[in-house]
Amino acid sequence: MSKPYDVVILGGGTGGYVAAIRAAQLGLATAIVEKEKLGGTCLHKGCIPSKALLRSAELLAQMKNSETFGIVTESVAVDFARVQSRKQGIVDQLHRGVEYLMKKNKIDVYRGSGRVIGPSIFSPRSGSVAVEFEDGESETLVPRHLIIATGSRPRLLPGLEADGETVLTSDDALRLETLPGSMLIVGGGVIGVEWASMLSDFGVAVTLVEYEPRLLPLEDEEVSRELEKQLRKRGVTIHTSAKVLPDTLERGDGSVKIEAEGKDGLIALEADKLLVSVGRRGNVENLGLENTNIAIEGGFIQVNEHFQTAESHIYAIGDVIGGVQLAHAASHEGLAAVEHLAGGEPVRHEAHRIPRCIYSRPEAASVGWTEQEARERGHAVRVGKVPFTAIGKALVQGEAEGFVKVVADERTGDVLGVHMIGPHVTDLIAEAGLAQLLDATPWEIGQAVAPHPTLSEALAEAMLAVQGRAIGI
After folding, report:
1. Omega into 362 within 30° of 0, i.e. cis?
2. What is the distance between the alpha carbons of residues 192 and 209, in angstroms, rounded to a whole number?
3. What pLDDT was estimated at residue 92?
4. 3-state class of 42 per DSSP?
5. Alpha carbon distance 13, 320 (integer Å)
6. Is the CB of residue 28 less than 8 Å from the CB of residue 164?
7. 3-state secondary structure of 378
8. Is residue 354, in this structure, part of any structural domain at all?
9. Beta-carbon neighbour count of residue 387 at 10 Å?
10. Distances from the Cα of 75 to the Cα of 46, 60, 64, 307, angstroms
11. Within the chain, which residues score under 70 in pLDDT?
12. Contact assessment for residue 133 and residue 112, using Cβ atoms and an 8 Å cutoff
């Protein structure tokens, strides 16, 4: 049995369901194939559940520090079961919302495993999808266009395979029923830093090991240094330029031991649990891609600027194509792919202009090139930088660590990058992203009236600081 569609989307994560909604809005007969729950990694194993846990940890830290606000409490304790219950409640509510959107937009959802098939009796070209359901039944979907949005999963290091007990992935960590006394985190990128921040706020003794010379190696160096300083102040032990030696791993009864090769020799490490956070790999296996001409390189599907694969009627978006592996990037890639296949002219978003957010404490966020990247590309740059200690609202909130940094082209005045670390910067970065989209200059952004007292004044002041015109510093 086969059924025709204008668009079939393989994968119901953030990129997939957003693409489906836009396709339906354009009047295209649309279907999604998803073997698990709609919402994908972001909703069920990533963005939302981790940020719910981070918020609980942040609130705990604030309550422990309440005396600085004149609020005296007898004691503060963590009920981690209720923390997890709140997290799951948020996930469930949002999941119901996605299910509703599918019904509202009349999108057919096939709950099973999809596999791309080659030319057959159903279609003279590859791209049809055979869906196998749990009960053993199957159905073939024959679309004019196929979008592959199968996402990614945690990458593991050989010798550090997760067992879900002592060696964990971020997926495993989200399912913890109790907090460990100590946690060793291998990988100081975004995921590792967020977990280090969260667990330390929950009272877990955290050791963070990063192979590169600094945490967050893809972010601006000044942001990296500031975040490392703040984590160390909170008691997180950090080893950079350290290579974990997987063959030294010892899994004990409720503990794990391992060694790392550091700048000054071997480092013996021990904790109750070990979390591996060294990036993610695309879900390209068992999709039937061998039945197509689709190219895979480095474990990711290769696409052109319109997200078309080597077969022009088959598109791929999101984590499965590598690049910027962020939920909002996947959403915009999905929108662009649908607009293109429908004959439109989608707005292109250059990878470096997609905002990047880190929900640690303090938060970090950025858009555009770092100062080093800008210089490496031949730009003579001017930098404006304003500390949050100069911003009244930050002092009022008791969160004055960090700064806003603007990198601009000295000749043209174009904003090349904005980098922030401090309170609520993951919300503030959107304004900087809009400024880059509109090619606004620091002077133009600085002329916008920022309400007082707000944290948004930090961005306005940093823009003015590029030309030495900041008022508050």
Report:
1. yes
2. 9
3. 98
4. helix
5. 11
6. no
7. coil
8. no
9. 20
10. 31, 11, 8, 54
11. none
12. yes
Q: Annotate 345-369 with b (16+ C-beta within 10 A) or e (fewer).
A: ebeebeebbbbbbbbbbbbbbbbbb
The whole domain housing 199 covers 156-278
Place of tokens 């880190």: 358
Tokens of 171: 């997926």
Find tokens 């698990």 and name the residue. 36
Q: What is the pTM of this model?
A: 0.95
Q: Is residue 196 located within the same domain as residue 58?
A: no
pLDDT value at position 350? 86
Same domain? For 18 and 142 the reply is: yes
235 in the same domain as 90:
no
pLDDT attached to residue 280: 94
Same domain, 332 and 382: no
Number of residues that this document lists for the chain: 473
**Residues 165 and 268 both lie in one domain:** yes
> Into how many domains does the chain fold?
3
Residue 110 lies in a domain: yes
| Identified catalytic residue from 95, 313, 328, 452 | 452
pLDDT, residue 214, reads 97
Indicate whether 24 and 90 sit together in one domain: yes
Report yes or no: 298 and 305 within 8 Å, Cβ to Cβ. Answer: no
216 torsion bin: left (phi>0), alpha (psi -120 to 50), beta (else): left
- pLDDT for 231-264, tens place per residue? 999 999 999 999 999 999 999 888 999 999 999 9
Check if 452 is active-site: yes
Distance CA 89, CA 203 (A): 24
In this structure, which amino acid lies at residue 340? H
Residues 6 or more apart in contact with residue 434 via CB below 8 angstroms: none
Distance CA 68, CA 50 (A): 28
The answer to whether position 471 is within a domain reads no
Helices 425-437/457-465 angle, 10° precision: 50
Same domain flag for 89 and 228: no
